[in-house]
């Protein structure tokens, strides 16, 4: 199994109650604060920890009484989420040739068409 080599940003330990601390530079970068939900993803040989997006509809609780422009709140949330997704996509594709995914898909299609031509 080939994995991308990365260097750890920080080290933490697990307490006797199986708790750990998220380093401040990670909390700041990914906007993690008290109450942020985290997904733990089993990657086979490693674990991926992903902060889950907030639930934007919670901002609408009590709507109509506060005078808050909830369309603006939702628009702001979506903009932040889009920026976060774009940033993550750029980080994940760094070093890949442009349109690498399209090239791989084209190669798979060519292999399928060659294989189906033998049976006709």
Overview of this structure, please?
With 120 residues, the chain is mainly alpha-helical. The chain folds into two domains: 20-52, no CATH class; 55-120, no CATH class. The protein has three helices and two strands, in the order αββαα. It has helices at residues 24-29, 70-93, 100-118; strands spanning 38-42, 47-51. A two-stranded antiparallel sheet has the order 1-2. Strand 1 (38-42) and strand 2 (47-51) form a beta hairpin. The longest helix is centred in the C-terminal third of the chain and has 24 residues, at 70-93. The mean pLDDT is 77.
List the helices and strands and how they pair.
Blueprint: H1 24-29, E1 38-42, E2 47-51, H2 70-93, H3 100-118
Antiparallel strand pairs: 1-2
Q: Counting H and I runs of at least 4 residues, what is the number of helices?
A: 3
Give a short account of the largest sheet: 2 strands, antiparallel
User: Based on CA inertia axes, which overall geometry fits?
Assistant: extended
Instruction: Find the structural class using helix and strand composition.
Output: mainly alpha
Q: How many domains in all?
A: 2
Number of strands: 2
What is the helix/strand order? HEEHH
What are the low-pLDDT stretches, counting only 5+ consecutive residues below 50? none
Determine the N-to-C terminus distance.
36 Å
What is the beta-strand fraction?
A: 5-15%
Percent helix: 40-55%
Structural Rg: 22 Å
For the largest beta sheet, what order do the strands appear in spatially?
A: 1-2
Could you report the average pLDDT, rounded to the nearest whole number?
77
InterPro entries: SpoVT-AbrB_dom (IPR007159), SpoVT-AbrB_sf (IPR037914)
Pfam families: MazE_antitoxin
GO molecular function, one term: DNA binding
Domain SpoVT-AbrB: 12-57
């Amino acid at each position: 199994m080939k994995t991308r080599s990365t260097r750890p940003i920080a080290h933490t330990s697990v307490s006797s109650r199986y708790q750990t601390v998220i380093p401040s530079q990670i909390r700041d970068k990914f906007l993690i604060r008290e109450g942020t939900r985290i997904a733990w993803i089993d990657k086979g040989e490693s674990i991926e920890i992903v902060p889950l997006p907030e639930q934007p509809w919670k901002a609408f609780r009590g709507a109509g009484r506060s005078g808050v422009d909830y369309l603006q709140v939702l628009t702001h949330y979506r903009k932040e989420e889009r920026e976060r997704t774009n940033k993550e996509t750029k980080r994940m594709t760094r070093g890949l040739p442009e349109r690498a995914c399209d090239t791989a898909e084209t190669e798979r299609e060519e292999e399928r068409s060659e294989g189906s031509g033998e049976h006709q």
